[in-house]
Each structure stands twice: as C-alpha cells, then as structure tokens.
Specification:
Layout: H1 3-9, H2 24-29, E1 45-48, H3 54-59, H4 62-77, E2 86-91, H5 97-110, E3 117-123, H6 128-138, E4 150-153, H7 180-215, H8 223-244, H9 246-261, H10 267-272, H11 276-338, H12 349-384, H13 387-391, H14 394-431
Parallel strand pairs: 1-2, 2-3, 3-4
Helix pairs in contact: 1-11, 4-5, 5-6, 7-8, 7-9, 7-11, 8-11, 9-11, 11-12, 11-14, 12-14
C-alpha cells in the first residue's frame, strides 16, 4: 500500500472493535445495571436492583448477564492504563432461592476464564436456606478454586463503609441520580455512532485502492475525450465517497458532539451529564471528530493529487479553446472594423468629440475586452504551468503577439482622434 493510502487510513484506525452491544431486552430490563459508579477500591460497580430481580431467571440467561458485564467492563477498561475488575452490589434480603442461585452462578461464570470480580457486596438474605445456598455456591470448589471476596452485610446502611454514598442509588442508601431509560438511550446512540465509524474504517482500504486505480488510468489526448474522462471519474469519485460514508459520518459525529456540548437540549444526555461515562464519551467524541475531519481532508487531498495531471491538462485544453475563440474574434475585429477604418480629421470641435465617442463605442471598447480576455488566458497559464511548459505552447506566443498588435493599432487610432479633438477644443478656446 502506498504512503498516501496509509496516511489517509491512519486517523481512523485508533478505534478498536468492541464486543457487540447486549441485546435490547437485556439493556431494557434494568435487572442488571452499570450506572458508572465506583467502590472505594476504584472498581466500577455492577448492581442487581431489587425491582429487577424477578426478571433475572424469567427474561434473561446467565450468559446474557455475563456478556452485559463483560461488554461494559471492556468499555470501561479502554479508558484505563491497566485493566480494572468490577465489584458487585446485590440486595438479597428478600431474594428467592432461584434469584440467589442465578446471581451466584452468574458471578461464578464471570470468573470462569479469568478473574473479573474484585468484591461482592451482599445485603444478606433474611431466610436461612437462602443464606446457606449463597454461601455454598460462592465457596471454593474444584470447578471454581478461587474464592470471591464476599462482603456480607446485615443492613443497607453498612454499604457506606465500602462505597461512598454518592456512588449508591437511593434504594441502596445513596443519592446517585440514575435514570435507566436515559442510560439505555445514551448507550444505544453512542454505540450506533461507533458501529458506523467502524464500518467506514473497514471500507476505507477498498476505497483508497479504487481511487489509486483510477489515478493510474492513461489520459486521453483530445479535449472532448479528456472532458468526458474527468467528468466520468469525478462522478465515480463522488459515488465512491457516498458509499464510503465518510461525510455522513462527520455529520453524525458533529451532531453527537453538539449534544455532548449542550446536554440540556437532549433529555438522555442531560440525565447522563456529570457521570464518568459521559465524560469519557465526550473526550472520545472530540478525538473522533478530529480524526474524521483529518481523514476527510486527506481523502480530498488524495483525490486532487491522483487527478491533478488530468485536471491540469484539461485546463490547458480549455485555455487553448478559449485562445482559438479570442484569436478568431480579434481577427474578425481587424478585418471588419480596424482595417477598413480611415481616420477622419474633423473640421470643428463637436465633430472631433463625436468621432472619438464613435470609435470608443464601436472599436476601442470591444477591442479592450478582447485584450483583457487574452491577458486572463496568459496569466492563468502562467499560474498553472512552469515557464518551460509555457514556452512550449506555440499558440500562447501567437496570442501574445496578436494581443499586442490589436492593442497598438487601437491605441494609435484613439490617440490620433483624441489629439485632433484636443486641438479643436483649444483652438476654439483661443479664438474666443
């Protein structure tokens, strides 16, 4: 792959793929939460709220809850220098045997492949048989030789010894404001952007390759063919760009950044403002905006570089066409007006002024317009071609000579007529 192609892809390659977002019914259930809170060890908290415990065994599987926790732990660890473990909070005072078994076995599943849980804070069940089951399931065994660090509490108020109350929701004795619906809406919107971002990254190498193939096509030798060539490839480029979706991604990114900047305008953003997740997301989105903007600029630059030769040649062809038209118009002006024109020496001042006015209107004005057109062509070519390229264009030298010839001829006649007019004017003044 060429250096140009690598340069274009680099800005968008910092976003590593994440695990798939948990299914809607898992996110919407509210049976397991990742509210963006932390215990005193700095571990992010997973919560099993009392009001959602009935859904655990009826609507969710243990594997789905494990995937939920792993997804958000992965999301959290992307922002950390080293991988973090989670801590779990569960109020099991009135939990049933099935619910207790579900939560305990879910925690064991989390630990199956690698250590994931730092501490488990449990408001212990009031029923002895539920306590017995819980302790039995969480005790070390052959299948799970490492014991989870269990913190068994008799009352909710004891949680504040391990977790600051600002990190606990009101049902757990804290004052953390948490709206699950807003949290879900926020997570889904950010994930939709991330998936679009990754999709563009995946399509980018193919886009660059196609663009490079287009840039290597041989250039036509005629003006009309080159016009068609540039028009066709410009259309291909625009189509490829639409299919890539980079511009649409930039607009989507700008929309999300705007909501993060002014969260009060969007309910779910306002509910999330101030949380660690919101802060991390805002930082990521600003970085993404810079990356995408840079990628858009580099794609545009790559297009310009790839077809600069074709566009330059098309400009030269166009200037040559303009030169032919200007040359034809100058020659016509010479033949029809300048060559037949005979300077008349006026006998009085009024006639002299009239002759100057008529010459300016019929010959001088259109002639100077043609001179300016010729100069525009000459200056434009000087800007786009090096000096040796300009001297190789014979038609440009012919235009320069013809322009000077026209300017001299018209200027001579006009100066003569003005001289006669001035003479008559001062002659009359002297006579009176």
């Amino acid at each position: 792959m060429s250096r140009h192609a690598t340069d274009v892809q680099e800005p968008l390659q910092d976003c590593a793929p994440s695990p798939p977002l948990p299914a809607d019914h898992v996110l919407d259930s509210g049976a397991v939460l990742f509210p963006g809170a932390f215990d005193q060890h700095g571990c992010p908290l997973i919560m099993f709220p009392v009001e959602g415990q009935a859904k655990l065994s009826s609507e969710l599987s243990k594997a789905e809850v494990v995937d939920f926790i792993n997804y958000f732990l992965c999301l959290h660890n992307k922002k950390q220098d080293k991988e973090s473990l989670v801590s779990v909070v569960a109020d099991l005072r009135h939990a049933s045997l099935p619910t207790t078994r579900f939560i305990a076995e879910t925690l064991l599943l989390l630990e199956l492949h690698k250590r994931t849980v730092h501490s488990v804070y449990i408001i212990q069940p009031k029923k002895k048989d539920v306590v017995k089951l819980l302790l039995k399931l969480l005790a070390p065994s052959k299948a799970y030789p490492v014991s989870l660090k269990k913190v068994l509490l008799k009352e909710i108020s004891e949680l504040s010894n391990y977790i600051d109350r600002s990190q606990l929701t009101p049902p757990l004795g804290g004052y953390l404001i948490y709206c699950h619906q807003s949290w879900v809406a926020f997570i889904k919107e950010i994930d939709a952007f991330v998936q679009e971002f990754l999709s563009v990254v995946q399509r980018l190498p193919s886009y660059i390759s196609t663009l490079q193939t287009l840039s290597r096509l041989p250039l036509p030798s005629t003006f009309s063919e080159l016009q068609h060539f540039c028009f066709t490839n410009e259309a291909k480029f625009q189509q490829l760009r639409r299919e890539l979706g980079l511009d649409e991604l930039l607009r989507h990114c700008e929309s999300v950044v705007e909501k993060l900047r002014y969260p009060e305008k969007e309910p779910c953003y306002q509910a999330m403002a101030g949380t660690a997740l919101f802060t991390h997301t805002a930082f990521d989105m600003l970085q993404n905006h810079c990356r995408i903007t840079e990628a858009v600029e580099k794609v545009e630059l790559l297009w310009q570089q790839a077809f600069s030769k074709a566009h330059l040649q098309l400009q030269v062809f166009q200037l040559r066409e303009d030169t032919l038209q200007i040359t034809e118009q100058i020659n016509t002006l010479f033949q029809e007006k300048l060559q037949p024109y005979k300077i008349e020496i006026a006998k009085d001042a009024a006639k002299a002024v009239l002759l100057v006015s008529e010459f300016e209107a019929s010959i001088h004005t259109p002639a100077m317009a043609l001179v300016r057109c010729a100069e525009d062509v000459i200056h434009t070519l000087a800007e786009i071609l090096p000096l040796d390229g300009q001297t190789s264009e014979r038609w440009l030298l012919d235009l320069e000579r013809l322009k000077e010839k026209l300017h001299s001829a018209v200027h001579f006649n006009l100066q003569t007529l003005r001289a006669v007019s001035s003479y008559r004017h001062y002659y009359n003044k002297a006579s009176t």
